[in-house]
Design a protein that fits this description.
The structure is a single chain. About 45% of the residues lie in helices and about 15% in strands. With about 300 residues, the protein is of the alpha+beta class. α5 packs antiparallel against α9, α5 runs antiparallel to α12 and α11 packs across α12.
């Protein structure tokens, strides 16, 4: 028998937009979309469980498909889902800013209720950011699948296999040679091993970043680690910690969207980019996310 917990979602929330983002046609191996639901497997300190998340009548529902989790695991997954879909943010101030600027005012209706879909596991976020550096998304998802299938764990339910992203301990002893066989570059392979070692040795965690006072020291903490540059740090802080001040400068999609909307003259127009984002102080990351959405 399945067990369900309910989470009331906030005003200005669109499950359809969330599912659209998760189901953009790329081969993500960490979750499965079917109709109005998304399934994702978790491994919480050795306790594996499969969840199915759906939404109806203003409520997100988490169904446990493989038994009832412990209180610890239930609390972890409930918190994870809240972060995944950014349920604690009041979008009203952002929508007021959008409505006041003609170049993006249409977004309040076009993407009504879209929330910044996060990656709540910091190791997964960092690994994904490193994997995806300077390659197209289709190939990045192929590399991610190879990494997950080689080093992650699985859970089987009703004949289907559900993958769980590798833990740092599974990658810290991986050889660069083995990772290169997955078609990762030598530098990316080295960075992934270094990041995994940082987690395994308790030199890096989401809790460590959250304990720092604000955005600048968190960014510096990350960029002091080999393999993490400014773009990667900003992307990770945006997608994992929900840092609103993050702008992934140089991101091709962001620049394409700004040019398409005549917000900047060309992709080298940093002054125009900075001037635009000044209008959305405190909501920069959300503006980036909506601009990415506008490329569809």
């Amino acid at each position: 028998m399945t067990t369900t917990i309910n989470i009331c979602h906030p005003h200005l929330f669109s499950w359809a937009e969330s599912l659209w983002y998760l189901n953009r046609g790329f081969d993500d191996c960490i979750y499965k979309i079917s109709g109005n639901t998304v399934r994702r497997a978790f491994d919480v300190e050795g306790e594996k469980i499969l969840t199915e998340i759906s939404c109806t009548d203003g409520t997100l529902m988490i169904n446990w498909l493989t038994g009832k989790p412990s209180d610890r695991t239930e609390a972890y997954i409930s918190s994870f889902v809240g972060v995944w879909f950014d349920l604690d943010t009041d979008l009203t101030p952002f929508y007021k800013l959008l409505a006041g600027h003609p170049a993006v005012a249409d977004m309040t209706a076009s993407y009504h209720g879209l929330r910044l879909v996060a990656m709540p596991d910091l190791f997964e976020t960092l690994s994904w950011a490193i994997i995806g550096q300077q390659i197209n998304l289709t190939f990045a998802y192929k590399l991610k699948r190879r990494l997950v299938e080689q080093y992650g764990s699985t859970l089987t339910f009703e004949g289907q296999t559900y993958h769980i992203f590798p833990k740092p301990g599974a990658l810290k002893n991986a050889s660069v040679v083995d990772l290169r066989e997955l078609q990762l570059s030598g530098s990316k392979a080295s960075y992934l091993v270094n990041i995994a070692e940082s987690f395994a040795d308790n030199r890096l965690s989401r809790e460590i970043l959250l304990a720092l006072p604000d955005f600048p020291p968190r960014q510096k903490y990350l960029t002091d680690i080999k393999g993490i540059g400014i773009w990667t740090a900003n992307y990770v802080l945006m997608k994992n910690l929900g840092e609103r001040a993050c702008i992934p400068y140089g991101d091709a999609g962001l620049l394409n969207a700004l040019v398409a909307r005549n917000i900047i003259a060309d992709k080298r127009d940093k002054a125009g980019l900075d001037a635009f984002f000044e209008l959305f102080k405190g909501w920069e990351a959300y503006m980036v996310f909506y601009l990415w959405r506008s490329l569809a």
